[in-house]
Protein: Tick transposon
Amino acid sequence: MYKWAHAVKTQVCEEETKQWRGAMEDKSALLTCRTHKADMGMEPLYDNSGGSALLFEAHAGALCTLAYRYRFDTPADVARAICRIFGTEEKTTKHIVLRCADLCPGHLEGTTFPLALGFREDTEKSTAVARAVHVTKQGLVQWWRRSLKQCRRADSVDV
Structure:
């Protein structure tokens, strides 16, 4: 490849990355992503499963937790965005992924929120990331199924 072609390609990549970062700055939901993801590119975390879809929502800051729903809707069941299992912590994505004791299996001691979502530091081994992401997907699927059951029970009571 010619030197000028390489220089142009490098400039284009830098400008695309700059625009990508700028677009993320405008979206508060992408705080975790913009803090921990250095480059644009494909993530090897997704396998077209339900857990992957939920992981994507968590990754993007758009997982439909009670705390997230409370920002847009304030009916009685959402008004208190407190975990219905613990009863003390706010039901956020971080709570569901790392702290909710009702979801099994739990993460290994020392697992951070970014690691559980698949963001990787240079020092972390890919096997640790893969295990953390696998556990996160399982937990998110359990949480989603229980959320659906609670919604169905609430709907049957209203009828």
In short: DSSP finds eight helices and no strands in the chain.
